[in-house]
Specification:
homodimer; 134 residues; alpha+beta; Ubiquitin-like (UB roll)
């Protein structure tokens, strides 16, 4: 990227761990799909490749969303909040966002003093992550 | 709260700092308003009082949204994600969410290699936070 773009990326305030919390939202329906984390390199990749790339805290690695599952998030717009410490991605979600096969990761709702599951899987999880073959 | 409710709250995985990232979304339009943080006590207060309460990292204090500005977020539903480490609040936002007087905090969009401001204040910020009086 050019120096001008790198300077613009300086507006994003990454935390002490080098990460910024990032919301993925379906661009046309407004559905909030997931919350994930990006480091500076993930932001660069998201902007240059036009698809969401996060930083996986569990795997400690860049995570191009959909690289294993095929459920890619195509970037419509990247937004930054007033304090520069949170990012909102407007995306076109292929299939489902959640590793459980549900469209959104936010499928547990607080009702009557406990958690209710309010969505069913649209794709069987085993179809998203097939066992490694010999 | 009852013990049953306290056990249900155990499903929320707060980070090492005791906080969970929380998205506030306008319940009917789907607009993402802001991202803030809650500790366990903030979640309790949000559920019992029916309005959003966060933990202010800058002030290191509980922050009942709107206590100074009057821009309260009335709770419609609290949701938890698949991993239990992110919260989504569906709210009815009184007025504006952002301290700049804009409806949403996410008013900076990445366009043509830099940031564009895509929303104007609906309320003058000085009206939200009047100077302390004698």
């Amino acid at each position: 990227m050019t120096e001008a773009i790198e300077r613009a990326l300086d507006e994003i305030k990454f935390g002490p761990d080098g990460l910024v919390p990032t919301i993925a939202q379906q661009h046309d329906t407004g559905e909030v799909l997931m919350l994930a984390w990006m480091n500076r390199e993930a932001v660069r990749i998201t902007l240059t490749e036009g698809r969401a790339c996060y930083w996986s805290r569990s795997r400690q690695a860049l995570w191009r969303k959909g690289e294993t599952s095929g459920q890619v998030q195509r970037l419509h717009e990247l937004r930054l909040d007033c304090d520069g410490d949170a990012v909102l991605l407007l995306v076109e979600q292929d299939g489902v966002a959640c590793h459980t096969g549900r469209r959104s990761c936010f499928f547990q709702a607080w009702r009557n003093g406990g958690w209710s599951v309010i969505a069913v899987p649209q794709i069987p999880p085993e179809q998203l992550y097939p066992e490694p073959r010999d």
